[in-house]
Amino acid sequence: MSFPALKIGDLIARTPIVQGGMGVGISLSRLASAVAEEGGIGVIAGAMVGMREPDVASNPIEANVRALRREIEKARAATSGIIGVNIMVALTTFAEMVKASIESHADVIFSGAGLPMDLPRIFQETCEQKKEEFRTKLVPIVSSGRAATLIAKKWMSRTGLLPDAFVLEGPKAGGHLGFAEEHIFDEAFALEKLVSGVTDAARALEDKAGRAIPVITGGGVFSGADIARMLALGASGVQMATRFVATDECDADIRFKQAYVNAREEDVTIIHSPVGMPGRALDNDFIRAAREGRKKPFKCVFHCIKTCDPSTTPYCISSALINAMKGNLDKGFVFCGSNVGRVKSIVSVHELVESLRREYDEYMEGLKKQPAMA
Q1: I want to staple 328 with a disulfide (CB 3.0 to 4.6 A). Which of 214, 241, 319, 323 is the partner?
Q2: Span 6-252+345-367: which CATH code?
Q3: Given this model, what pLDDT does residue 91 score?
Q4: Residue 161: exposure state from Cβ atoms within 10 A (0-12, 13-18, ≥19)
Q5: Least trusted range by pLDDT, from 123-137, 189-203, 267-281
Q6: Residue 347 to residue 166: CA distance in whole angstroms
Q7: Distance CA 177, CA 219 (A)
Q8: Is the pTM of this model over 0.85?
Q9: For residue 303, is it left (φ>0), alpha (ψ between -120 and 50) or beta?
Q10: Average per-residue pLDDT in the chain?
Q11: Residue 126 CB partners (closer than 8 Å, separation 6+)
């Protein structure tokens, strides 16, 4: 008994785990390549990937594109496994980052924080401009079967392309959430309740596509038993992010990782992000000050998010997340998933994946021992 493979077209991940893309320096080439080495899909996050570039404020597009290309190249040098990139639709650099990822031969582009309607068009234009048949898989991140169907319909009518897979991200995920705040804790919107809507939508598209369109589920997936339950519901793989923060290879500062280890369930809160979406994070003085209306004056230098209005937002989210990634938690905050309170130690990616594999096997063996229903 062992993990089944996750297949996205001709890509085969022997471990059916996609490491969630965690922006602003949390998941870069070091973490992504370590996950890919374990047979999963390692993901470099595009959001503010160029934060360490000297010209990121004066030349944000070129700085971020340059940094993204370099991170993909570094990941490629470290592993022969599958490397993906997560690019938020809300990024002002979205088109440039997608093009750079394709030209750098990223295996997969995952895209959410909005509906990635332009993703296949940019892919086709890149192929035409470079006169090359790129093989990058295009995977939208959705919160419902309706969104999956809408994206597929638009893609098909505009370009003749269909998604290579879908990621269904439920309301227990960390960071920005694709749900109205009143739905985050509504059991009707629990991940388990949403899976069938997306798998049904994917199955309905497979005849047109002439191939399987797998569904990957994320948001609150913590253990090997959780993986088994998701696969039993029809998913082909899972997306996990929170677990990979507390690893040696995670690209964040040790103080950021330790915040996960120290976190309690009651420390988790929902914020109103300047991006215009609710988000899940660890509560702290920075968040409480923003909630109380204590605005932190700033000049927008990054121009990173289309939906952020610097004249009304109480703080710069990029600056806050950069500070947190560097371990300066008093000047920012830590995004996290709902299960962060269950993280107890920092381990290697290898140790984490092996523990998930053991838990999966134990769960499946337990099912075998259960008496058959009469």
Answers
A1: 323
A2: 3.20.20.70
A3: 86
A4: middle
A5: 267-281
A6: 29
A7: 10
A8: yes
A9: left
A10: 93
A11: 98, 99, 102, 103, 134
344 contacts 288 by C-beta, under 8 angstroms: no
Q: Is 78 exposed, middle or buried (0-12, 13-18, 19+ CB in 10 A)?
A: middle
End-to-end CA distance of the chain: 26
In the structure, what pLDDT confidence band is assigned to residue 42 with cuts at 50, 70 and 90?
very high
Alpha-carbon gap, residue 31 to 244, rounded angstroms: 8
The predicted pLDDT at position 182 comes to 95
Compute the residue count for the chain: 374
Q: How far is the C-alpha of 170 from the C-alpha of 322, rounded, in Å? A: 25
Can you tell me the mean pLDDT for 316-328?
89
HSE (side-chain half, CA atoms, 13 Å) at 358 = 6
What would the mean pLDDT of 158-179 be, rounded to a whole number? Answer: 96
Q: Is 220 exposed, middle or buried (0-12, 13-18, 19+ CB in 10 A)?
A: buried
Residue that is written with structure tokens 């914020």 in the block: 271
Domain chopping of the chain, boundaries: 6-252+345-367, 256-331
